[in-house]
Structure formats: structure tokens, C-alpha cells
């Protein structure tokens, strides 16, 4: 059994995701499809890149991750298939795959129509269904990635927001806001744990001092708290509330440790 | 492996869709269920009929499409199972299947409880779980459709909005609004391509001239554009925006070519 | 084939549910996952308990139901696995399983990390992925439940709102509001049917007399109606509308029969 994961900004209210799955079921009946999410904000390539980075490595070895957040669909942007030591990745060459690939050795391929692994009629507006789903289906059936097109010498890499170290301080930022309103920072557990820090400062509306605790309920209800979250990054939350709303967190809000 | 697709207006916030899948897993463990969508607006039979029409033919041959938008559940409306050359369709006889069946030769069956393919206790309010899911499960196991009940001499057909031709003009209308705010018209590619048209007129707030392009990004950001969309119909969109919001598109808005 | 059902308050907009499914696919490739729902309101343990109670028994025998609404994640609350005559249940020991278990004979186990059925690194904030998904995966592979930890002598049981009988009246309340705005009461069909009642009284804004009918469309459009719903309880609805909005129903609104 081969797993194909999907992350898109198509939402679930139309037939778009359903037809991607129909195409996969037609071309690769044995593949199993798992939704990572389809509610990436419309066109938010960075948000999708972060979510894929946070989730891809929990999947079985050999999983084919398909990411379609593709505001440039139909234009000259390229399409990619990538193989790493444990996974495959398929999507437009606009950076959406790049956070997950940041530390991986990759074989990257530029997808070509003439390789005959697309749907016969390719629309200008829905490559998720016509290119990326069929390519994932063919990969799941064991087609070698090199058959899909020529090597891609390079591909678009979004800049990862690296934490900055000033003497005793480390400065980071909010990189993702989840649906609970928690702000996930770019500060990884490996940086935080050796510091034995007991608090951080959130620079949203003024300076907010925020205690570091092992879990949300370790502070009183409605109080802010920083925890090393399940993605391995420091998260700013509010016990029983939304840090986005009550602290005014935004993507890019500075957090110092 | 047999595929069962589901389209409903049940949403995903309650247990309704989950229990339909539980029933299918119980009766047909080998069937695979794919969601077309469950976010059809409540009671919007036409919207569901259009979505089913746009999506059904991307599924594997033999797929059983179940459509449950059913404001008349429990009343005297009939229930149908339909076989076409490539697919099965199951749902209430209220028109929800009719756009997908428009050009198909069909065997249509009126579902009868005494045929013993429903759940034992049929509620008055949830035929999706008690009738349509079990019937789809039995069909996926190879039960011949004629065992499900007597032939249906006729069934409810919604009027498809046919484009109208006036000399050199072709007049159509918005038939569906997707979640990106694109307006999908009833003007098919076969009508449009021979015309080599370069623009169309959208009659929403006054007359709006809208260029025909191969893809959305072929116009500047926030500008309106018409493309032959992935469903094979002319679509009115706004590059990087919502045509529904910025052009005021509605179902029925006239579009002339 | 073994079925695992999931009910959570994680929503579908982040990668949380997707990674739970990734973990299950890794540990139990043959298991099939069915979503009961992921849109339980954030932290609403009672709502999830009711939805699980309403849906679990439609699943195949042997299904493993995983319920993760877990505001106390990371704190001292225990984690449970429970076996009944037909099903398994996995979740935090905060009452979320208790409505489904109300009338069942159970074997209840307190999950222990040292039993080695969790992910190797257990986060403090996402036991759905790190504890409950792997435990369900192992159960689906036939691991005996007693290996997961010691017997739980007791577990948290939420108080089920029992209907109250006064001479000729039976008094109940709204126990759940579905996404259509129907109010599902705690009055079961077994209580109602013998009474041959023709109406009930809803005490929301003043006293509203509401006819008992077999289905919603048995009253004129926009009129209130009471039906024995698909969960086996009396429901208060409005034909073609939302009883929540137009009648002002709330959880706890009194309904007398």
C-alpha cells in the first residue's frame, strides 16, 4: 500500500479535491489518499510550506506528498517532482515544497507533458487534477521519478525565517497561526532547551512577558503561555483562549528569548 | 476495489457523514469512499446537481455516486438508483442526479424498502444513512440494480440552462459560484473555441467587458478575466481576487459572448 | 480490515488530523480511518461525547473509536483505552467517552507510556498524534488491550441529562445543536412513542407549542416542528430553517411533552 498526502488551498466546498481523488483512484487503485489539509488560505504559499514542513515526516516511508497552492497555475511557472531519502514531493515550483526540502538531499525533476504522465487534456486552471494527482498516482505505482522529465537544476526556495542570536538573547518570530489561535514561532526546541529559559517576550502590542511552561493548562485560564509545541517549535498560546485574538499575534510578530 | 463517492449538504461538523461511512464499511468492507463535497449549501439541489455533473466523470469506471441533498426527506418523494454505461447514481428523486444524467442512456430504478437493501430501521429524517448509503454498499458488492426495486418510468429532471444564440452573439449565465468566487457559466468550450472570441460581456453591475485569456494570471492583479475553466465551461474570475465579491456575480448573472 | 474512527476538535485547517492519519498509516497500514467529525467546538467535551454516543454504533463490529477533545492535554489527566462487547474506545479520561459507554460492560485500561505503544517522543500538547493514534493503530493490529496498561478502576463519567417525569408530563432539554440548527433533546423514542403525543412545549422565548410530526416537511415552510430524529431522540426543527436561530434554542433549553 502506498500513501499519497494532499495539501491544497482548494477548500472542501466544491468538487475540486474530490476529483483529484477520483483521478488517483482511477490511475492507482491501490494508493491510499490522506488529506494533510485543504484549508490553506487562498494563495498562501508560505503557510502551506510551513504546514507541509510540520507534518510530512509523520507519514510512512515512501509517502508521496502533493502540495497544490498555485496562484500562477497556467503561467510559465514549472512543475516539480522531488525524491528524498524517505519521501516524494509533487507540486508547482513556487516554493511550496521548499521548507520540507530544506535539509534533504534531493533528486528534483521538472515535469514534462510529453512524458505522458498527465491527464490527456490538461486545463489551464486545475493542474492539481490534471498534472499533480496523476503524477502522484504514477509514482505510487512505482514509475521511476526520472521518467517524468529532465532534472531540475534548481527550484524556488522560500527564505526560511532563521532565528537571530544577540549575545544572551535569541530573537525569533511567529511563523504560523493555527486554528486555535496559537502562534508557532521559528524557535526550535534544540535552541530553547539548552537555555533553560523560564520566559520569553512577545512584541505584539507593547512588550508582553510570557512564561515558558510544559503545557497550556500550567497557567491560569485566559493567561498567555509559551510551550515547546508539537511541531518542535516554541508556541505562544493562551490557556483556554486564542493568542491570535487576545494578544494580537500576526505572522512576523517578534518573540525574544 | 469499488469506489463510492458522496455529495451531500450535511456539512462535516456533526456525525452524519461519518455514520454514512460507518454503514458502508459495515456492509461493504472493500468499498472505498471518496467525498465529492459535503458543503453544498443547505437544500441547494441545483448546486449539488452542477457539482456532481462537473465531477462525476473523473472517477473510475463503476464508481457509485451518492447524492443526498434532500429537503423533502421523509415525504412522498421517491428514491432512485440509476445505472449508466460507466457509473451508478443513487439519491432522492428531486433532480439532484439529473444534470449528470442529461446525456446518458440510463436504467433507472425506484428504490423499495421491501427489497431489503435498506437499514432495518429507516428513520424519517436521515435517508442518507438508512437508505442511500446501504444501497450504494450493496451495489458495490455486485447486487444487480434491478433487484433494488421496479423500473422508474421517469424521474425529476431540472431544467439545464441552455445558452441562447442571437445571430453573432451567444448568451449564457452564471450557473455556479465556486469557493474562490469564480463564476462558472453554462457556456461550454465546444461553443466558445470555434468563435475565437477575445472578450465577453458580464451583465452584473452595468456592462463589464472581460477579456478571454488562457489563465487567470494573464491579466494584471485584481482585474477581471474570462477563461475556459477546468469543468469545460467559461468562467469569470478576478486574478488574485473574488469575482463574486468584486463584480457582484450571482447565479443567473447574464454573460454574452 | 479494521476501522478506526476519529472525533476531535482539531478542525481541518491545520496539519493535525492529517498527521494522526499519517501515524496510523505508518503503524497499521491495513487500518481504514473514518472521520466522525473534527469540528467539535474547541474544548466542548459534552458535545463530542454526545456526537460519539449518536454515531458509534453504526460502525462495523471491532471499530476503534478515538475521541480527542482534550483541554487538559499535558496535565495530570489520565488516558484510557476501553473495550466493550462490540467496540474499542481510546481517548483522554475527561468524560468524552462516557456517554457512549453508559450502558456497556467495559474493560477499561489506563494507558501507560512504558507499555511502549506511544510514539517515541511524546509532546505535551498533541496526544492525539503521539498517544491516541498510535494506541488505536496497535489495537487495530490485534494487540490485546491489557498490554496497554493497568486496569482503570474508574473513569470520569459526565452526568447524562435524564428526562424527568411529572405525572402526565415528561420534561427534557436540548442536549445538542446540529449544523442545520436542529435541537436534539434527551427524550428518547422509547419514552415518546407510547405517549402518542401530538405536540410538545419548547421553553425558549416564552412557551412555544410545537406539533409532533413524522418529518420536517409535514409542517408549512418556516414553521417549527418536533420529530423523532435519526439519533432516536426528539428533535426540534424548523422546516426549511434553523430552529437555533428562529426559536432561540440553546443547550439546556427545556422541552416538555
Topology:
The structure is a homotrimer of 257-residue chains.
Chain A: E1 3-8, H1 16-27, E2 32-37, H2 45-55, E3 64-68, E4 79-83, E5 88-92, E6 107-110, H3 127-140, E7 164-166, E8 169-177, E9 183-188, H4 189-192, E10 199-204, E11 206-211, E12 224-228, E13 233-238, H5 243-247, E14 254-256
Parallel strand pairs in A: 1-2, 1-3, 3-5
Antiparallel strand pairs in A: 4-5, 4-6, 7-8, 8-9, 8-14, 9-13, 10-11, 10-14, 12-13
Helix pairs in contact in A: 1-3
Task: Write up what this structure looks like.
The structure is a homotrimer. With about 260 residues, chain A is of the alpha+beta class. Chain A contains 5 helices and 14 strands. In chain A, strand 1, helix 1 and strand 2 form a beta-alpha-beta unit. The longest helix of chain A is centred in the middle third of the chain and has 14 residues. Chains in contact: A-B, A-C, B-C.
The pair of chains with the biggest contact is: A-B, 30 and 36 residues
Rg of chain A, rounded, reads 20 Å
Instruction: Give the SSE order of chain A as H and E letters.
Output: EHEHEEEEHEEEHEEEEHE
Number of helices of chain A: 5
- Total number of β-strand segments of chain A? 14
Query: What would you call the shape of chain A?
Result: elongated
Q: Kindly state the mean pLDDT of chain A as a whole number?
A: 94
Please outline the major beta sheet of chain A.
Answer: 8 strands, antiparallel
> Hey, roughly how much beta strand do the residues of chain A contain?
25-35%
The quaternary state of the protein chains shown equals homotrimer
Note poorly predicted spans of chain A: none
For the termini of chain A, the CA-CA separation is: 45 Å
Helix content of chain A: 10-25%
Structural class of chain A: alpha+beta
Amino acid at each position: 500500500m502506498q500513501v499519497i498526502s494532499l495539501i491544497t488551498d482548494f477548500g472542501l466546498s466544491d468538487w475540486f479535491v474530490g476529483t483529484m481523488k477520483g483521478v488517483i483512484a482511477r490511475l492507482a487503485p491501490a494508493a491510499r489518499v490522506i488529506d494533510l489539509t485543504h484549508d490553506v488560505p487562498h494563495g498562501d504559499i508560505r503557510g502551506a510550506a510551513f504546514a507541509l514542513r510540520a507534518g510530512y515526516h509523520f507519514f510512512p516511508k515512501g509517502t508521496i506528498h502533493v502540495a497544490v497552492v498555485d496562484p500562477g497555475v497556467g503561467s510559465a511557472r514549472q512543475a516539480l517532482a522531488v525524491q528524498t531519502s524517505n519521501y516524494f514531493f509533487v507540486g508547482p515550483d513556487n516554493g511550496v515544497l521548499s521548507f520540507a526540502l530544506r535539509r534533504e538531499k534531493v533528486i528534483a525533476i521538472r515535469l514534462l507533458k510529453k512524458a505522458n504522465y498527465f491527464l490527456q487534456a490538461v486545463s489551464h486552471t486545475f493542474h492539481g487534477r490534471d498534472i499533480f494527482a496523476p503524477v502522484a498516482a504514477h509514482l505510487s505505482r512505482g514509475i521511476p521519478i526520472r521518467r517524468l522529465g529532465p532534472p531540475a537544476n534548481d527550484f524556488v526556495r522560500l527564505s526560511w525565517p532563521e532565528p537571530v542570536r544577540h549575545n544572551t538573547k535569541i530573537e525569533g518570530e511567529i511563523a504560523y497561526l493555527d486554528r486555535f489561535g496559537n502562534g508557532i514561532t521559528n524557535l526550535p526546541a534544540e535552541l530553547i532547551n539548552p537555555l533553560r529559559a523560564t520566559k520569553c517576550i512577545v512584541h505584539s502590542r507593547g512588550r508582553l512577558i510570557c512564561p515558558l511552561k510544559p503545557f497550556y493548562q500550567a497557567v491560569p485560564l485566559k493567561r498567555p503561555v509559551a510551550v515547546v509545541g508539537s511541531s518542535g517549535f516554541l508556541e505562544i498560546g493562551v490557556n483556554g483562549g486564542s493568542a491570535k485574538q487576545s494578544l494580537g499575534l500576526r505572522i512576523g510578530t517578534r518573540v525574544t528569548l
